[in-house]
Design brief:
The chain is an all-alpha fold. It has five helices and no strands. It is found in: Cytoplasm.
Length: 104
């Protein structure tokens, strides 16, 4: 995907440029078929961003999924995005690359 507003690592420069089509394009690049659980995590991340103007820490998304899917799903985020929260979840959800996190 060649698109304006993408940094050298493939993240959106401005998270406000995100929409569901962008998410589908990024997911396709990452070889992820978006399921309802993916969308639930992504929508939570977008809502968190709208409220706090920062990407949520992975623990917030883990807690959200556990509340919806049950405590045994605590690590579901890592099943949904196997190559890392930052590399895949943040990118697909249209977050800027979080500076404080070097891996996923």
């Amino acid at each position: 995907m060649q698109r304006q507003g993408i940094d050298e690592e493939g993240y959106l420069v401005d998270p406000m440029d995100w929409n569901e089509e962008v998410a589908r394009e990024f997911a396709n690049i990452e070889n992820i078929d978006l399921t309802e659980d993916h969308w639930d995590a992504i929508r939570f991340m977008r809502q968190y961003y709208a409220e706090h103007q920062v990407a949520p820490d992975v623990r917030h998304v883990m807690k959200h999924l556990a509340e919806r899917l049950g405590a045994e799903s605590r690590n579901r985020i890592f099943e949904l995005f196997p190559y890392g929260y930052v590399k895949q979840a943040c990118k697909i959800a249209g977050m800027k690359r979080p500076r404080a996190w070097s891996t996923g």
